[in-house]
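for the record, two folds in this file. i put them one after another cuz i was lazy. first one right below, seq on top, structure tokens after. the second one comes after a little note so u can tell where it starts
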Amino acid sequence: MENYLQISPYVYDCKVCPTRCDGISKMHYAFENDANFSEGYEQKLINYINLSTNYSATKTTQKGYPDVEVKDKNGKVFYIEVKVQQRTFMSVERIIPESGLKPSETVALNLSDLIRYFELEDKGKLVIFIFWVILNRPCILKQEKMQYYYRLVSELKPIYEEQKDKRRFRRKSGEGDIVDGKHKGVTVNYHFSLNELKLWNNEL
């Protein structure tokens, strides 16, 4: 898991994009579909770790922990939370201009997850990576199908402490958020820039 590359600062002006993304929210957030889709990438990552590295990986069973548990040959453990980003936050410059973020560079994480992982690192002494799978952003991906970015939670914490609510946004609930009478869709996200992450230079 050591094959990481720091990305170069990336700035893209969406205002001059000839194939601008659709920034219109349809207010339909298919929680179950998104969850199932993400689980597919979790399994791809688990398979890659087990077949191509000296680590062993399994789906986490402990409630509230990140998606994937990874062990080295000595039994030392770290965790990976997998986030698949298919949609771009096209209105980020208008809605949270204080963030200084552009749509193409913006990735999101459930704020409650982020806070919980801070606490797990502090109290449980866990090592946690956030692993973003980026899809459907031609301005970033160019000819590639997808790219993978990562960061340790401990490395994201200083950004959170510096930016505070400048990166926080609560969206309205929409169709698909309610599953079996319970609100399961994420409505409060915290946002980071791809320039604050590192590129993982491997294929799953």
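(here's the note) second protein begins now
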Amino acid sequence: MKMKKSKIVLSALSILLIASIFLVFSSSQNQIPSADDSVGIEYHSNVCVYKNNELVQCDHNLLYDTGKELIKTYLGDTGGASDGVDQISLCNATAGCQAPVAGASETFSLLNSCGMEEATGTYASVGTGNWTITNQFTSTCNNIVTNSTRLQNTAGTNFAGNNFTLVTLQNQDALTVVWNIWVV
């Protein structure tokens, strides 16, 4: 009788252990990274092929270098259209600047005076799928405080945001913002 009880207990413990391992493994595989975990632009896609409504294969595809250049060309849009992502703005930290969130709903009090107005950055292609948008702001006032920047198009659609160490600018201080962007 003791042998039968110990086998039942051992079996129950084994099942419990296997179930626990399964739960831990499956929950660690399904975690979705938050916006705070973002590391930059990546390309994700797959291609699914069906024959007579039956799946043949679904697999990742390769982004060609020419495709990276297409993304760079569209986002940089050096042709002057309003959808080009080349507008750099700064936030007035005195009025309030919060860390960027995916929905762009953070407090962002636009700096719009003292030489710190939103500006069209200078676009530069720096390699396959790599580009920069740069602008140098020069303060015409004292005690201008900023710690956040946004990149958007002239239509006002936000592309990205970034917080940086708080900076206090005095008259004639220059602040250069360089957005480095690449597609991997």
